[in-house]
Every structure is written in structure tokens, then in C-alpha cells.
Automatic annotation (TrEMBL):
Keywords on record: Copper, Disulfide bond, Metal-binding, Signal
InterPro entries, A to Z: BlueCu_1_BS, Cupredoxin, Phytocyanin-like, Phytocyanin_dom, Plantacyanin
A Pfam family it matches: Cu_bind_like
Gene encoding the protein: LOC123417810
Any one cellular-component term (Gene Ontology): plasma membrane
Record organism: Hordeum vulgare subsp. vulgare (Domesticated barley)
Protein name: Plantacyanin
Lineage: Eukaryota, Viridiplantae, Streptophyta, Embryophyta, Tracheophyta
Length: 122
């Protein structure tokens, strides 16, 4: 290879490596680990290094539970009164947006009070 083509080739290679390393796929976290989204899952998130772009996977029986993304006030009161988004598939994949906290509860009567809620900082 001629000397004049080595430098442009190296620059192109470096550019390709840089572009490849900026494509980052978030990690998937199964909420509640092997137990899934169930009673007593509150606090599961505390020991995790969850980041923006990561995906929370909620696995549960949809005839018995749901996942509702709520604001902090509704999370604390275990009541859905403000804007929310309800998931009901039993295998919900929710990608975390950058910045701030995300709050999730089960809105079936009494479930949030029994620990079916998590607060994640991304």
C-alpha cells in the first residue's frame, strides 16, 4: 500500500471504530429477577446500576396484575390520579428515558400497598 493511502485508510478505520462504539444497546433488567413483577418487589431496584436506555422487563400474569407508570405523588400514595401509562401484556418492555426518575406501580386494588411498586433513577 502506498504511503499516501495509509493515513486516509487509518482515518477511515478510526472513524468506523468510533461510530461502532457509539451504538450502545441498553441492558435488559427483569423486574423482580426470577420472581417477576409480584408482591414485595419494592426495593428490587436499589442495588442495580440502571441507566437511561436500559429496558425494564415486567413479567406477570395479566389477569392478576398490570404495570402503571405514574408520577411520584401517585407512587407515594399508591393511587392513580394524575397522568399515567398502563401496560397489560404480562411481558412489558419499557425503555428508560434519560434523566429523572420513573415510577411504576400495580394499580389492582391493594397490590401497590403490598409492595408492587418500584422507583428507578436513570
Amino acid at each position: 500500500m502506498a504511503r499516501g493511502t495509509i493515513i486516509p485508510t487509518l482515518q477511515l478505520l478510526l472513524l468506523a471504530v468510533c461510530c461502532a462504539t457509539t451504538v450502545v444497546h441498553g441492558k435488559e433488567w427483569t423486574v423482580g429477577d426470577s420472581k417477576g413483577w409480584t408482591f414485595g418487589v419494592s426495593g428490587w431496584e436499589r442495588a442495580k446500576r440502571i441507566q437511561s436506555g436500559d429496558v425494564l422487563v415486567f413479567k406477570y400474569n395479566p389477569s392478576m396484575h398490570n404495570v402503571v407508570q405514574v408520577g411520584e405523588g401517585d407512587y407515594n400514595s399508591c393511587k392513580v390520579s394524575g397522568p399515567s401509562r398502563t401496560h397489560t401484556s404480562g411481558n412489558d418492555h419499557i425503555k428508560l428515558a434519560p434523566g429523572g426518575k420513573a415510577f411504576f406501580i400495580c394499580s389492582f386494588p391493594g397490590h401497590c400497598q403490598q409492595g408492587m411498586k418500584i422507583a428507578v433513577t436513570a
